């Protein structure tokens, strides 16, 4: 029974706190007396202030504007616009501004204060951690037995080609190019000296 009374008391107090947060102090334009006015909920703005005889009049935010909090402002806030190299992930609504993030291939740089293009890994390097909207790609030298022959912000190192049983490596692979294999016959054709018939 005591627990039930305590719970009821807490609920009543919570309701009072909620009501206080949704009210603001105003002044009656006729008498000059202080009045407690209702705030407007998110998605609306204060069209007309309250008086001693009438409560606040709220109105929906027009298209292209919003309010995200309980308020008593005279006009809604203008919806934001995504910046350069950004894309909209959620459109603006009456009670929430739009959400933006960097486009694919860009990340947000705190230093620049904008989305900048991912850095690219040089030949002989590969991406070890992909770029995201808030981080650039991480590059590292290709390990032994792997290579990367392109400048890229997304490619990883690839394993060297393994020559088959009837082939041999005529060019050994390194970090920036693959191994080149050839059959014995192809190797002879490539290495056979040209005869000069002149």
TrEMBL record:
InterPro entries: TNFR/NGFR_Cys_rich_reg, TNFRSF_decoy_receptor. SUPFAM superfamilies: TNF receptor-like. SMART domains: TNFR. It comes from Periophthalmus magnuspinnatus. TNFR-Cys repeats lie at residues 60-100. Disulfide bonds join 61-76, 79-92, 82-100. This is TNFR-Cys domain-containing protein. Residues 60-100 form the TNFR-Cys domain. The keyword Disulfide bond applies. It is found in: Secreted. Pfam families: TNFR_c6 (PF00020). GO terms for biological process: apoptotic process. The keyword Repeat applies.
